[in-house]
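Researcher: Here's the sequence for the chain we discussed earlier.
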Amino acid sequence: MAPLVDKAAAKFDTAIVTEKVNLAIEPDRAARLGVMATPTLIGFTGGELVRLTGRRTPAEVDEFFSAVAEGRSDVAAGKSDRVLRVTAGIALVVTGLAMAPAWPLVGAGVAITGWGWWSGRSLP
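Model: Thanks. This is the structure I predict for it:
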């Protein structure tokens, strides 16, 4: 993912300063930033704006840098994120219905499914 990030960052070299943190070498710094998985992109403009974790497409990385350069936090969730959220929500609904039914579990599943479905627009 590093070449993808470098290429996208080069387009915004005057608007954005990029840094890379190696988790193996600087675990304390990664912990202070709240990095729990790699790769993680964190956009700052004064304060934290956007955090993206996981593998991303070139278009998603470009959108991330564009949003940070413009001071926006409305970066769309990736397709894999949406699929994971919808699948997890459906699994909770099915499990909740199979368990006598367990309505709180069904409700949580419906909420997660809806969040996954609509998160293609922007991250909450």
